[in-house]
Please model this.
Amino acid sequence: MLDLKKLLDGSLQSIEFSLSLDDCSFVDESVSGVACANGVITNHSGLILLKGDVKPKLSVVCARCGKEYEYSTPIALNAKITDKLANEDEEEFIIMQDFAIDIEDIVRTALILELPTRYLCKEDCKGLCAKCGADLNESSCNCETKERDSRWDVLKDYFSE
Ligand SMILES: [Zn+2]
Ligand SMILES: [Zn+2]
Model:
């Protein structure tokens, strides 16, 4: 827990934080790796703001070609911190407990919410050929021209009976 009392009573203007998570498999069982986060919490005349970023360094698997690659797109942290919610719609607020916040929990939540549910090694990854399994990013195969919808085969059999 990060104690914010000195920020709240005015004896500090800002509090910096940094932490690292050495196992990010809580995000998804197919994800492994680490993440580090750092940032600063400031008191703007009573408005407590948290700003920072999370830098993941994850080993993930491309959903199209199955290749393992490193995912390292940073996630921005931007939140307001309060001791109680004025109304329940204020989702962007983080609630203090005993004038402290759980930075690790905030970072974990950001990773869970912001990491993609499906990873692509590149935006236009061509994936694997469904027939021969060739990696179409690296080579083309001869299957594509013969490709047809197998549902037609079923109909053809039906009519020939
Ligand atoms: Zn891929
Ligand atoms: Zn093929």
User: Anything to note?
Assistant: The CA atoms of residues 36 and 44 lie 26 Å apart. The mean pLDDT is 88.
